[in-house]
Amino acid sequence: MSFFRKKTIAEQELGDRLPPGQYKTDKWPVLHYGQVPTFDPATWDFRIFGLVDPPVRLTYDQLRALPTATITRDIHCVTRWSRFDTSFTGVPFREIMKLTTIKPEATHVLVHAEHGFTTNLPLADLDRDDVLLAWQADGQDLAPEHGWPLRLVVPHLYFWKSAKWVRGFELLDHDQPGFWEQYGYHMRGDPWKEERYDWQ
């Protein structure tokens, strides 16, 4: 069901760029569960494990040494704001996955982040040209409250799927709900279909 607020004339002029139930903002609201974690590059690592061969563990320096890309995309939060033309710089998902081989039975990824936070994604939603592990937004290092030193960016889904403070990918042969999904958020989160909650 669409949000009841009527679109402004300016929002109507945006046409297909604004998903149903969303409003455009130039701000970037800060929303997350729990405290902003501290970052210690001496102990920080990023892991790829589960249905891969071999498992991978990278230091922050090793991750930052991988080939990078910059994308510019619109982003959409499940809380109904949309921010247009946001640029992100980081390591493409496809690039980091070149370090291992994904086993044929893998269909989903459970993304692990600080404080035990997780979110789930179909592998197909990560295996795209514009999915990054990012450390910059709009040409500047991410602020800690926006996910420094590393956040996942999956711009075609609601932005809770773009986990902040990400620490690893676990490849699975099934879908497994992450933190917010266990509390009723949709398992996929397509903003164009308004997949906000699991009862939709």
How would you characterize the overall build of this protein?
By secondary structure, the chain is mainly beta. It has 5 helices and 13 strands. A hairpin with a 4-residue loop joins strand 5 (69-76) and strand 6. The model has no long low-confidence stretch (mean pLDDT 92).
List keywords for this structure.
single chain; about 200 residues; mainly beta; Sulfite Oxidase, Chain A, domain 2; six-stranded mixed β-sheet; five-stranded mixed β-sheet; 5 helices; about 10% helix; globular
Q: Can you identify the CATH superfamily?
A: Oxidoreductase, molybdopterin-binding domain
Radius of gyration: 17 Å
Strand content: 25-35%
* Termini separation: 8 Å
Approximate shape: globular
Order of helices and strands: HEEEEHEEHEEEHEEEEH
What is the average per-residue confidence, as pLDDT, rounded to a whole number? 92
CATH architectural label: Alpha-Beta Complex
CATH class: Alpha Beta
Domain module tally: 1
Strand and helix layout:
Blueprint: H1 9-13, E1 23-24, E2 45-50, E3 52-53, E4 56-59, H2 60-64, E5 69-76, E6 81-92, H3 93-96, E7 101-102, E8 108-113, E9 118-122, H4 123-126, E10 132-137, E11 140-141, E12 151-153, E13 166-172, H5 179-182
Parallel strand pairs: 1-6, 2-13
Antiparallel strand pairs: 2-4, 3-7, 5-6, 6-10, 8-9, 8-13, 10-11, 10-12
